Structures are given as structure tokens and as C-alpha cells.
Amino acid sequence: MTCRHNPHDPTCTSYKSRAAEAQAFLTERARVEGRGASVVWPPPSDRPDAERYEIVDVEAVGHHLVLKVSYPSCAKCAYEGQKVMVFLNTTPADALRWKRIDPHFRDPSDPTTSTSAPSPAARFPASLSGWVHAITYARETP
User: Which residues, 6 or more positions from 25, have their beta carbon under 8 angstroms from its beta carbon?
Assistant: First the structure.
């Protein structure tokens, strides 16, 4: 995982548990600053809509799948809203059934459905070097 937040940054939402903490932090800050408690983090334009995506590139590597996915709703995301993700023990046929690909890391024990992508095992920058690193990671993971 590549997270550019500082350790214990309350606005880091890489994990579900952190999202609730970030929301509580920002709500309290807004209350103290007199702006009410209607702050939502991250703002809708700053987060990808898991149901609105386009698969830009795909590569099956053994039993794993590497995807480059574009999220048009994520206008302020790095790399023009594109994410490179590695899904372990996943086939292209699995990906064809997905209606939802959430790029955020989730607890591996969270249930998934056949129409929803599992949590990515790894995420890399949506650049040429990020793609190469993702392929290498998938090749070297049993």
C-alpha cells in the first residue's frame, strides 16, 4: 500500500476504521470552528465511486489479476483518478462479473459477493513504473 498520509493522520481513510475516525475528527473540528457538523470526509469529488469505473488495462499473472482502473468521479485523485491494483487468487472471469470495484483496502474478513471485487492485496501508482511493480508483485506472490 502506498499511503502518503503521516502516521496517525486522522484524515487517512485507507482502512474502514480510519474513515470513522476521520469523520469524527473533521466533524469536531467543524463544530469548534463554528461551521456546523455537516462535514463529510473525503469530499465526494475526492473519492472514487466504486460503481462508476472503467478498466483501462488488465493482466492475468498466474492466479492473480492486475488491473488499472479509471474512476471518472475522482477528479482530484492522483494520476487522473486511475488506480493500479493487484487482486490475489482472482481470474479475468471473476472481474467480468464485478459491478463494483472499491480501490480502498478493507479488512480481509469482510464478506464479498460475486458482483463485488475483493479488497486489493496491493495498490500502486498509475504510472508505467507502478504497473511494472504491480506485475512484479503478482509474479512473486504465491
Answer: 10, 11
Judge if 61 and 121 occupy the same domain.
Answer: yes
Extract the C-alpha cell encoding 126. 498509475
Distance of alpha carbon 37 from the chain centroid: 26
Alpha helices in the chain (DSSP H): 16-32, 92-97, 128-140
Higher pLDDT, 52 or 25: 52
CA 132 to chain CA centroid, Å, is 18
> For cell 493500479, what's the residue?
84
Residues 5-13 have a mean pLDDT of 56
Question: What is the residue type of 45?
Answer: S
Contacts of 139 (CB under 8 A, 6+ apart): 61, 62
Domain that holds residue 120: 48-140
Q: What is the pTM of this model?
A: 0.69
Over the Cα atoms of the chain, what is R_g? 16
Q: Provide the number of structural domains found in the chain.
A: 2
pLDDT bracket for residue 1 (50, 70, 90):
very low
